[in-house]
Amino acid sequence: MNIILLGPPGAGKGTQSARLVEHHGMRQLSTGDMLRAAVAAQTSIGLRAKAVMDAGELVSDEIVSALIDAELLALPERAGAIFDGYPRTAHQAEQLDGILEKHNRQLHRVIELEVDEEALVRRISGRFSCAECGAGYHDEFILPQVPGTCDRCGAHEFKRRPDDNEHTVRKRLQLYRSETAPILPLYEQRGIVSRIDGMAPVDEVYRMIVKLIGTPSEHH
Ligand code: AP5
């Protein structure tokens, strides 16, 4: 089962991907995470991408598609892929078709998380994560059970993304509308698009996704 999770910044793509990885044995392919890792490691891609990401602009199609291609190569054949934050332009969608064909994979479903844009700004500005293991939290909605301690790994350091401020979020939302949302009709023509209410509580959204893609045993 290979799926695309589509939705504007803060829609919950990363949150839901993490659950699918943990409970469904799928692999998350997040171009945002890959780019942030490149920035942290100061690779040539990271050095080029940093200013673009901080401004909320899109990194070039060639760079992100090459990252996806490399990740898919390393993915065990039986592991399902969750494309999180990719494709984001019509050209990336075209490139993904070629990459999937090359790796002998099929795209089974595109799940769009529908959300209220104003709520997204609130979600994103409250977002933080564990500096050690990356577990995601939110100032209002998802706090660690013991304040200041990560539920998953027990670490005490947390971090926030530099692009998680209102100005950049509005830019990212605008690009989602102009560049990313227009790729949906392509997948609609193939009959593989499902829409989910991304404003529902995290557990509820997850239940709806699992209902759509089935349980792991149903994939084989
Ligand atoms: P990327 O990392 O992909 O960021 P994004 O798409 O803007 O998405 P986010 O990670 O902000 O949101 P999300 O949907 O994962 O939400 P989350 O689950 O964290 O991209 C960053 C940058 O990299 C881009 O701007 C661009 O520059 C570059 N880039 C990446 N991919 C690219 C590509 N393909 N092409 C070109 N450039 C690319 O949730 C958000 C918050 O809400 C969290 O705090 C969470 O706890 C909370 N939350 C989640 N779900 C719920 C819920 N149901 N109820 C209440 N709270 C919730």
Would you kindly provide a brief summary of this structure?
This protein has 220 residues and is α/β, with parallel strands linked by helices.
What would you call the structural class?
alpha/beta
Question: Overall mean pLDDT score?
Answer: 94
Low-confidence stretches: none
- Strand order in the sheet with the most strands: 2-3-1-4-8
Q: What fraction, in percent, of the residue positions are helical?
A: 40-55%
Order of helices and strands: EHEHHHEHEHEEEHHEH
| Total of DSSP H or I helical runs spanning 4+ residues | 9
Estimate the strand proportion. Answer: 5-15%
Task: Evaluate the radius of gyration.
Answer: 17 Å
| Envelope shape | globular
Which ligands appear in the coordinates?
BIS(adenosine)-5'-pentaphosphate
What is the number of beta strands? 8
Q: Quote the distance from N terminus to C terminus.
A: 9 Å
Structure description:
With 220 residues, this protein is α/β, with parallel strands linked by helices. It has nine helices and eight strands. Helices cover 46% and strands 15% of the residues. The chain has a five-stranded parallel β-sheet, with helices on both faces. It has a three-stranded antiparallel β-sheet with strand order 6-5-7. The longest helix is centred in the last third of the chain and has 15 residues, at 166-180. The chain is globular, with a radius of gyration of 17 Å. The model has no long low-confidence stretch (mean pLDDT 94).
